[in-house]
Amino acid sequence: MAVSRQQRRPVVVLYERIADAIREGVYPPGSTLPSEPRLAGELGVSRPALREALLLLQEDGLLSVRRGVGRTVNAHPPRRGYEHLQPLEQLLSGGGPPLRVRPLLRTTEEPTDFTTQHLLAPAGSELRFWESLLNGDGTTGVLSHEWAAPEETLEAAHPAFAAALREAAPAVSMLAALTGASRGIALTAHSAVSATLLGTRRGQQLDRAADTPAVLVTQVVRVGEVPVLAAKHVLATGAGALPVRQSN
């Protein structure tokens, strides 16, 4: 049964009113919202309710708070509905410029248990493997490992995929290369999130202690039922918020 707007919590109704105004251009990207007293008066709501709704909008990436300026509308608000497949450097950017991709390794390797399981790679095949650091605002908080399916699998799924990986610039993630070459071919992904510790090697790469808590995101990207990319992303404490969007 559908839930009517009247059955929603008041703060959610207020959140939607402001979000709709942002998407309709009443408050365009980059603009500064009116002060809290003025906005509360315009919307006919109390300041505590408005403050709670504004905090939720900020947490959800529609607004940013700038010292000495106030609340501004982000240039690239998050999409509604089902998850929109994006490279991690874009997801973690908070609506700003994508994080920088610093390549550590671009090579090929034989399948491991992980890639055999997720890419269905036969024994003896060669898989592209890219290791990268994602940087932003002077910090390094993400270590990314990406594997592509065997060349013949990529060619069968979409000929442009293999060419995109061969010709990609070093400072590009594998997923960014594939999404850029998809050209109407639908990509879907499944991700799993778990807690872990960095460990010695990853700690050295991220300049953190080995016992630093981290989030491990494993991701498999498919064309139809065919897996074309598998990845492990390690996000150390302070790496930024990872948006997760769900719908039904």
UniProtKB/TrEMBL annotation:
Keyword hit for Transcription: yes
Database matches in InterPro entries: Bact_HTH_transcr_reg (IPR050679), Chorismate_lyase_/UTRA_dom_sf (IPR028978), Tscrpt_reg_HTH_GntR (IPR000524), WH-like_DNA-bd_sf (IPR036388), WH_DNA-bd_sf (IPR036390)
Name of the molecule in the record: GntR family transcriptional regulator
Domain HTH gntR-type: 8-76
Database matches in SUPFAM superfamilies: Chorismate lyase-like (SSF64288), Winged helix' DNA-binding domain (SSF46785)
Organism: Streptomyces kurssanovii
Source taxon at top rank: Bacteria
Keywords associated with the record: DNA-binding, Transcription, Transcription regulation
The keyword DNA-binding appears for this protein: yes
Lineage, broadest ranks: Bacteria, Bacillati, Actinomycetota, Actinomycetes, Kitasatosporales
